[in-house]
Amino acid sequence: MIVKVQEKDFIAQDEIQKLKNNCIETPGAINSFVGYVRNFSNNKKLTSLTIEHYSGMTEKMLLEISKKASKKWPLLGTLIIHRYGKLNIGDQIVLAASASLHRNAAFESTQFIMDYLKTQAPFWKSEKINNQNKWVLSRKEDEQELNKWEN
Fold this sequence. Notes:
Blueprint: E1 2-6, H1 12-22, E2 29-36, E3 40-41, E4 44-45, E5 48-53, H2 57-72, E6 75-83, E7 85-88, E8 92-100, H3 103-120, E9 123-129, E10 132-135, H4 140-147
Parallel strand pairs: 1-6
Antiparallel strand pairs: 2-8, 3-4, 5-7, 5-9, 6-8, 9-10
Helix pairs in contact: 2-3, 3-4
C-alpha cells in the first residue's frame, strides 16, 4: 500500500510503475483514476481550488481505505496520492490505483477507493469563484455511491 499526501504534482505513469514494482507478484491488471480541477462548479466559472487536510490523520485514513479495499478484493497493491494546497484549473488532484491478478478486482477496488476518498477522507476544499472562496459541501450523490459498497 502506497499512500502520499503532498503539495507537489506527480507523474501518474511513474507512480503506477512504482506500484507495479512494489507488488510481490506481477499484476495482470492495474486500474487507475486521476482526478483534475474542473473549470466549472455548479454552473459557475471556477478560478482555483484550495485543499486543506489534517496531517497525520489524513494519511492514517487513506491507509484505512486501502486496507478496506484489500480485504474486499484480492489485491496485490494499492496507491493513493492526494494533493493539497492551491490548485489551478486542469491540475491533478488525486491518483488512485489498484493492482490485481484480474481486471474486475482492479476496476471495482479503484472505484471503491475513490468513493471512500470523496466521503471519508479528511480533506476540506474551497473553490474560488468570482474572487470569492466558497467551501465545498458534501454531496448526497457521493454518499449514495458509498452506500452501494455496504451491501
